[in-house]
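Journal club prep — side note

Before the paper discussion, L.F. wants everyone to see what a predicted structure for a comparable chain looks like in token form. Sequence:
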Amino acid sequence: MEWWQRLRVGDVIVCDSFVVADWTDPGTEPGRPIAGLHLHRSDDEAWFVLSGRLGFRVGEGEREVAAGESILVPRGTPHSFWNAVAEPTRYLLVMTPRLHHLIEVLHAGDREDFARIFEEHDSELLS
């Protein structure tokens, strides 16, 4: 099962300047990346964990973010994240419309040229 197939995509709020997505990872493969190492050249991205715990690599460091905590990844910063526990983790992802479109294209599952998809969205897939 691919990483994008493991996510339950719940409610999404979309406007011209930002998108908030309510997602849950089932926790069936803790430690496996939800998103591999990548960066966004022009867009910041933030997560707010509602339940469970997410792990993050941001730049050269790693950090876990528990329920009630949040993290901001500034544009240009290499990052990856994963469910850090063997249970469902629910989180809000706050992003730009460009990043939302990137995720929609990846989740559609009809393309395998992932590096090109990232480039089309002013981003870079690093692993």
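L.F.'s comment for the group: The chain has one domain: 3-125. Keep this in mind when we get to the figures.
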